[in-house]
Amino acid sequence: MEIIQVEHCNFESDAITFWVDISGVPQSIQEEAQQIDGNNFDPDCFGICVTYVLEERRFYVVVDTELSVKHPGNIYYAGIDGEKYWFAAELPESFVKQLFLACTEATANESYNIKPTKQDAEQSVAQMLAEMG
């Protein structure tokens, strides 16, 4: 998978939420998403959501558990109906690091009091790996 761009980010009082366009989603997920939109399927409508918690100075990949606790989704397909359909994909360490760094770069020119740093991105990846065991 590859990062296309940080589409936009929302600054809240306790976090920054990033919506990131991605490509190269596994074929099995593309096939499932194609069933949603049929002939209107667009392989460029996949994304991933990242949250940066200001107090912790830490990034997290957002996982949607609303539809299924057994199969939480970490990437989404934005359907023609405007809904986000979530899918589970394995995210390699190198991809997650690139993802967090892209989010850091997206806020580089913003005037937030607290904004993510490259060090925050690297530490977030290390913490995520440690938690996974």
Q: Your description of this structure?
A:
This protein has 133 residues and is α+β, with helices and mostly antiparallel strands. The chain is built from three helices and six strands, in the order E-E-H-E-E-E-E-H-H. Strands 1, 2, 3, 4, 5 and 6 form a six-stranded antiparallel β-sheet that branches. A hairpin with a 4-residue loop joins strand 3 (46-53) and strand 4 (58-61). Helix 2 (93-106) runs antiparallel to helix 3 (118-132). The chain is globular.
Structure characteristics:
single chain; 133 residues; alpha+beta; 6-stranded antiparallel beta sheet; 29% strand; globular
Q: Unreliable segments (pLDDT under 50, ≥5 consecutive)? A: none
- Report the major sheet: 6 strands, antiparallel
Provide the residue-averaged pLDDT: 90
Shape: globular
What fraction of the residues are assigned to beta strands by DSSP?
A: 25-35%
Helical fraction equals 25-40%
**How many DSSP H or I helices?**
3
Q: Gyration radius, to the nearest Å?
A: 15 Å
**Which H/E pattern describes the elements?**
EEHEEEEHH
Between the first and last Cα atoms, what is the distance in angstroms?
A: 23 Å
Got a strand count?
6
Class by SSE composition: alpha+beta
